[in-house]
Structures are given as C-alpha cells and as structure tokens.
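Q: What structure does this chain adopt?
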Amino acid sequence: MKKNLKIIVSGGGTGGHIFPAISIADAIKNKLPDAEILFVGAEGRMEMEKVPSAGYKIIGIPISGLSRTNLFKNFKVIAQLFKSLKLAKKIIKEFSPDVAVGVGGYASGPTLWSAASMGIPTVIQEQNSYAGVTNKLLAKKAKAICVAYEGMERFFPEENIIITGNPVRKNLTQNVSRDEAIEYFGLDKNKKTILAIGGSLGARTINQSIADSLKDIPEGVQIIWQSGKFYDNEASEAIKRVGKVPVKQSAFITRMDLAYAVADLVISRAGASSISELCLLGKPAILVPSPNVAEDHQTKNAMALAEKDAAILIPDSEAINSLMNQAFKLVEDDIRLKNMSNNIKTLAEEDSANRIADIVINIANNKK
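A:
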C-alpha cells in the first residue's frame, strides 16, 4: 500500500459540508500519517477559515451558486464557473493527486469534474436523502458514491453506491460530562436545557421565534442559542430589551460537544450533517427545514426522522408562531423525550469517517 498518497478534498460553503470533510481528512491522516491532503474551497466562504484552523492547506476558487432571484447575476456565476474550471485543472496538474473527494458545496463541481476529465479517480459523498444536481452529474464518472440513505439508486449508478452514513465532527464523540458543560456555559444544573442551532450562518425563523418568546420561558427551562453570524446583533439586542433571561446567546458555538452534552432538546435545521450528529448522540429534536435549499431536501431529511417518531417536523412557515410553544411543552415531557431519544439512536451510522477513508485509500491505491 502506498503510504504517501496525495488526496484532494473539495467542497464547503456551510459547516454542514466542511466539518464532515475535515472528519474524512482526519480519518485518512490517522490511517496514513504521510498522506498529503489539499482542500479546494470557494473563495470567501467559511471553509477558507475553518480548514486551516484544522491544520490543512486550502486553495480557493472563484465559484458561487446560481441565483434564483437575480438572473443577471447568473451571467457572472457562469463566467466564474469557466474561470474555476481552468483554475481547478491547474491545481490538479500541479498537485497531481491520486484521488479527489467531493463532499458537496460550490467548489466540488469544478474540482471533481476537472479531476475526472484528467483521469484522476473520484469519490463523492452525498449527505442528503435527495441528491443535488452537481452530484448527479459528477456521479457518472465517480468510482464510489458514499451515501447516508437507502434508495439512492434513484439518482446514482447502483453498482457504485456504498452506504456509509455521514461523518460527524470528531470531538462530538468524545465523552464530556453534563457538569462540565453546565460550568462552561454558566447554566443552572436544575433546569432543562434547550439548544437552538440554526447553522453557522443562522436561521431567521428560528431566531425570530426565540426572540418573540424570551418573556415566556418557563421557570424550569434555559436556552443555549446559536444565532449565527448574520443575526448576532439582532439576537443580543432582543435579549437586552427583555432584560435578564435564562439564555446563553452567541453567533457560533465552538464547543458543540459540550452544547450537545447538556441539551435535553435540540432545535435545528434539517441539514444532513446536523441530523447525523443528532442520531449519533441520541438527542430529541424539533427540526425546522430550511426552505432555501435545492429540491427541498431538508424537508425530506426531516420526514425520514418524523415518520419514525425520532423528531418533530415544523415547517419553516409555521415556526415563528408555533416553534417555541411546542419546544417548551416537549422539553418538560420526560417520557416523550426518552422515546424520541431511543428512536433517533436506531438511525445512527457509526464510524462513517473511517469507512469513507478506507474507500478513498483503496481507490487511490488501485487507480488505473
């Protein structure tokens, strides 16, 4: 087996793509310490910050997504695409990888398309239950397609599909105590805790529902509120207007392991990465799917859990009025929480990052 493999990992845009990508890279480095891993991301997106923080080199390409509202902006996007394809080919030629891995997000399209056209084997990781357009196109030349849900042969060549589950952030699976989490966040150990996370950028309806309900928080309940960077000022101002409330608010939670450890109930969007974390940790959840995603895939993700009573689904259009009322009732219903926890645990796929790493290494070593 070749020990000094060269591997490109591409994708990003949100934490839901970036953290699984880093988990896969970490698993590869753990198996092959001499492997050289290069990330390719989108200029100006959060991977350009998060990937170097994790210890990996990243190169940005000038790619962005198509606009659904501004058609004139799409002329610029198309120009960026051609520029990104040219730059991706240059990166691949200079780095000369043994394999390229795509995890979704803007940059994975030009990078994996260029790699495949240059004879480099590719691996796709599709997180959602409904495949996106980019991965459908890339799948035609991929050696392996790692998925988290059954039934993905609707979108991909069946012979190349491998069910691996979605990787989660490595530190989430390390044991941390509730007492440590309570001390870290400055919480009351005798109160139930709701953890509200709208993604790294934030979720308007989740944030609005919490802001409108600050005066109505029950006596025995407290909230950890990740508002996202776009809504940080609004959230902190809402708290100031109400006065002293049992809420710990921040734009981004660095220690998600501690946040999950203390959470009795989680409010979240229904991105595939978030759902994988909830399943692995057995956390009861209310899911509010984002309406701003391709093919409404978050609703499909959430329905897969709601149908098994592993989570509650609240449509984004109803969240402002009903989300926190349901959350306050549910967090004090110990029997329902226990049942939901048991149900969601049965959906967990463990050791996903290692499984994907093995697939990547095997394909790199057997490339023709």
